[in-house]
């Protein structure tokens, strides 16, 4: 019987994280970070470069290839007030790739810093992109939740919105680093395999991987595949409610290729997930497959995975069958890639269907990511975190890593 986690008290997922153990910068050599190894309840430590030694030959490792965009835009009003516009999610067009290709107008859902100083009017910014002077304008629209619609327009059709962000935008490093973005973050806060623009936060478990680690995995007979989940700012949102029922998960957009679905089927729908974003995507695939099993003609909108859906689904289907249902959906619609979205919350009581091991960093107290880890290790997270804290592991985005094998 599935346990519904709605009444879990978030205070049970609190621990004392000293500021000196939050990594403000990464190590110069990515794969020399520490690696905590949790295997069947035993805990030890190693360096990340040794990760391939812990991955059985024939395994499938899945990576999130999203790329962090330079999503923070700064405008100065005539009064001198500085307004920060933080692009969270495209609205018009809603597709990331199409939005980045726009040449005159783009609308986004944005968080606005210093909002009280931007009551009305349009903000303007003069800039030079591709040796061409342009004026970027921003007009604030309706409130959506805690964010606003912002319409951007510019006066040169030879310049795309992606190019504007690259020249004018600032990379949004995590707020808990308590420092400004530096030039080094432009490369440090991207995985070496990042490709698809759209995230406002990096899938940080991937930051430890280097070409050498990939070569060792290949030599060991490990299969690798990529998928895309665009990480939203909601990933940093702490759970404020006493019970997690009161916490609304943010929607994240996923795309998974036919090749990755086929590869999952070849591996009996079992995978090692690199990062919690890959975990959420892989587990969401199972629930999308269940939806399609019940409704083969479901539309893309109906494939969205709701926050509590996994706990409310009564029937179980084999994960391989779930992947085959997705392949059938792609075939019927002449698609090479599954596009969908997920609000899945993975918390104690969740039964993992596809993910058999996780590579992940150490997460903030009282975060949904810590709930996900606890669900995976059957509540043993405290022992893992106590070990990491007492053995000087570095925490959060630029910190050390772990491999969890329950």
What does this structure look like?
The protein is an alpha/beta fold and 406 residues long. The two termini are 20 Å apart. The model has no long low-confidence stretch (mean pLDDT 95).
Overall pLDDT metric: 95
**CATH fold topology of the largest domain:** QueA-like
| Distance from first to last alpha carbon | 20 Å
Number of helices: 10
What is the percent of helical residues? 10-25%
- Counted beta strands: 17
String of helices and strands: EEEEEEHEEEEHHEHEEHEHHHEEHHE
Q: CATH first level of the largest domain: which class? A: Alpha Beta
Return the CATH architecture of the largest domain: 3-Layer(aba) Sandwich
Low-confidence stretches: none
Largest sheet, in brief, is: 9 strands, mixed
Spatial strand order of the main sheet:
2-1-17-16-14-3-12-13-15
Overall geometric form: globular
- What percent of residues are in strands? 25-35%
CATH superfamily of the largest domain: QueA-like
Give the structural class.
alpha/beta
Rg: 21 Å
The tally of structural domains comes to 2
Secondary-structure blueprint:
Layout: E1 34-39, E2 42-47, E3 60-64, E4 66-68, E5 72-76, E6 82-92, H1 96-100, E7 105-113, E8 122-129, E9 132-144, E10 147-154, H2 161-168, H3 185-188, E11 196-199, H4 211-219, E12 223-230, E13 252-257, H5 258-266, E14 271-274, H6 276-294, H7 309-312, H8 319-333, E15 337-342, E16 355-361, H9 368-376, H10 381-390, E17 401-405
Parallel strand pairs: 1-17, 3-12, 3-14, 4-11, 14-16
Antiparallel strand pairs: 1-2, 5-6, 6-7, 7-10, 8-9, 9-10, 12-13, 13-15, 16-17
Helix pairs in contact: 5-8, 6-8
């Amino acid at each position: 019987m599935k346990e519904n986690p709605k009444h879990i008290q978030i205070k049970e997922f609190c621990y004392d994280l000293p500021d000196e153990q939050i990594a403000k910068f990464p190590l110069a050599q990515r794969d020399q970070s520490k690696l905590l190894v949790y295997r069947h309840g035993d805990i030890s430590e190693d360096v990340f470069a040794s990760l391939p030694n812990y991955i059985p030959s024939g395994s499938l490792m899945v990576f999130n290839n999203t790329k962090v965009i330079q999503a923070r835009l700064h405008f100065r009003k005539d009064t001198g007030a500085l307004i920060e516009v933080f692009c969270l999610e495209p609205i018009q067009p809603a597709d990331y790739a199409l939005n980045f290709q726009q040449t005159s107008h783009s609308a986004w859902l944005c968080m606005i810093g210093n909002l009280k100083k931007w009551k009305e009017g349009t903000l303007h910014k003069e800039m030079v992109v591709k040796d061409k002077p342009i004026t970027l304008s921003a007009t604030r629209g309706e409130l959506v939740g805690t964010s606003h619609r912002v319409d951007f327009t510019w006066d040169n059709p030879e310049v795309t919105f992606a190019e504007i962000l690259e020249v004018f935008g600032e990379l949004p490093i995590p707020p808990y680093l308590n420092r400004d973005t530096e030039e080094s973050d432009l490369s440090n806060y991207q995985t070496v395999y990042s490709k698809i623009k759209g995230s406002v936060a990096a899938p940080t478990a991937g930051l430890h991987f280097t070409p050498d680690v990939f070569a060792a995995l290949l030599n060991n007979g490990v299969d690798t595949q990529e998928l895309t989940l665009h990480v939203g700012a909601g990933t940093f949102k702490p759970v404020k409610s006493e019970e997690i029922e009161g916490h609304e998960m943010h929607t994240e957009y996923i795309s998974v290729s036919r090749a990755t679905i086929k590869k999952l089927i070849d591996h009996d729908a079992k995978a090692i997930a690199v990062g919690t974003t890959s975990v959420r995507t892989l587990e969401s695939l199972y629930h999308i497959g269940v939806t399609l099993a019940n409704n083969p003609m479901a539309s893309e909108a109906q494939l969205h995975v709701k926050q509590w859906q996994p706990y409310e689904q009564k029937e179980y289907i084999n994960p391989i069958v779930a992947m085959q249902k997705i392949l059938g959906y792609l075939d019927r619609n002449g698609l090479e890639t599954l596009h969908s979205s997920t609000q899945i919350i993975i918390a104690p009581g969740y039964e993992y269907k596809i993910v058999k091991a996780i590579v992940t960093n150490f997460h903030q107290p009282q975060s949904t990511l810590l709930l996900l880890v606890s669900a995976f290790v059957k509540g043993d997270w405290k022992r893992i975190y106590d070990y990491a804290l007492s053995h000087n592991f570095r925490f959060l985005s630029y910190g050390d890593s772990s491999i969890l094998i329950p």
